[in-house]
Amino acid sequence: MDIGADRDESHSPTVAQVGEFGVIDRSTRGRIQSSHTILGPGDDAAVVAAADGRVVATTDMLVEGRHFRLDWSSPIDVGRKAVAQNGADISAMGARCTGFLVALGCPASTSVEVTDGLSEGFWREAQRAGASIIGGDLVQSEELVISITALGDLEGRPPVLRSGARPGDVVAVFGHLGWSAAGLAVLEAGRSGHAALVDAHRVPAPEYEQGVSAALAGATSLTDVSDGLVADLGHIAQASSVSVDLNSDLLDTGSEIVSAATDLGVSVLSWVLGGGEDHAFAATFPRTARIPDGWTVVGHVSGPSGAPMVTVDGEPFSGPAGWSSFDGSTE
Ligand SMILES: Nc1ncnc2c1ncn2[C@@H]1O[C@H](COP(=O)(O)OP(=O)(O)O)[C@@H](O)[C@H]1O
Ligand SMILES: Cc1ncc(C[n+]2csc(CCOP(=O)(O)OP(=O)(O)O)c2C)c(N)n1
Ligand SMILES: [Mg+2]
Ligand SMILES: [Mg+2]
Ligand SMILES: [Mg+2]
Asked: Does this complex have an ipTM over 0.85?
């Protein structure tokens, strides 16, 4: 689909002018469904193969101003992020994505350039995850809101839960940590440069395959990092009734994030430990497991001496643990 056709927004029609079915047609015409889809968009519901007999399902939404800004991210970026955030949750169960449903609310005055860009982003990321957009909904609303439902297949494996971590396990992570928070800080400060971090903020790039790799390697618990490493490991600690201790020397910060931290006068560890939206993966593995390639061991699991908690170098983490939806900022 040529989303460049109506590039000049002033010449693009609005969603109201094209109409509900016009917008839906623009987002579905010419798209090729993945092999998981038995029946794609167009009827009252889609039909997806569930070879496993069980379906993994999750949903997450993005709200303009709260989760993204269109002066900071393109519609394609936002579409990709919306799908990535959901696909990462499917991977974090040890499953493979089989389909995505996209529900969109937008003002009548929204340019179809925006809805076309979003659709392109939805599709690009769904294909990266090995699946496609199988259906959705489109309604008028006061602000741009995107709600995505992702489906997945466990391919015969047990789901990898948050509740399976055991004392003696090691904690390992895959993917950049803190990059998205650093990129957001760069945008908020109105700075230029730090392109890799800003890109990571605009479009998280979960390696969907890693959820399956962790499951096959015997991960005892697994999550994606959406709120922040300490916050998300906190969910594992709670669910598993264990404590998790991170070794800050083992957390790979990387030169990009160190230079942004110096530039903005921020502590690198506050981003690495408390930054959300990376959609990296964190897992626990038995000490004897062969940790999959590309994963880094960053800590270990112990029995809780008091309440389950996450510590850093043996101490309770003093910084913000991560994002929380109703306090306006971080936990
Ligand atoms: N409104 C809701 N009704 C039922 N379950 C919900 C609701 N909101 C969140 N949950 C469930 O709470 C759990 C935690 O949600 P969340 O923190 O959003 O997870 P994630 O960070 O993986 O997206 C998930 O299992 C989710 O399905
Ligand atoms: C404009 C803007 N402000 C702030 C943020 C920061 N931010 C928004 S949501 C979020 C964390 C994750 O969001 P949530 O809705 O909790 O997703 P989930 O954990 O359900 O995947 C962060 C760090 C942002 N992405 N964009
Ligand atoms: Mg969620
Ligand atoms: Mg998650
Ligand atoms: Mg959250």
From this structure: yes
- Chain centre distance of CA 19: 31
CA distance 40 to 99: 10
| Binding-site residues from annotation | 44, 58-60, 67, 89, 136-137, 162, 224, 226-227, 277, 323
Report the SS3 class of residue 21.
helix
Mean pLDDT of 192-196: 96
Mind giving me the DSSP string for 49-111? --TTS--EEEEEEEEBTTTB-TTTS-HHHHHHHHHHHHHHHHHTTT-EEEEEEEEEEE-TT-B
Ligand 2 atom, smallest distance to 89 CA? 21
pLDDT digits (tens, 9 = 90+) for 275-313: 999 999 999 999 999 999 999 999 999 997 788 799 999
Testing ligand 2's pocket by substitution, the residue of 69, 146, 227 carrying the most ligand atoms inside 8 A of its CB is 227
Nearest C-alpha to atom 6 of ligand 2 is from which residue? Answer: 67
Question: Ligand 2: which residue has its CA nearest to atom 23?
Answer: 276
Tokens, residue 310: 């996450």
Q: Which ligand is nearest to the CA of 85?
A: 2
Rounded to an integer, what distance in angstroms lies between the CA atom of residue 214 and that of residue 242?
20
Report the candidate in 41, 213, 223 with the shortest Cα–Cα distance to residue 126. Answer: 41
Q: Which domains does the chain have, with CATH numbers?
A: 9-153 (3.30.1330.10), 170-316 (3.90.650.10)
Q: Is the C-beta atom of 116 inside 6 A of ligand 2?
A: no
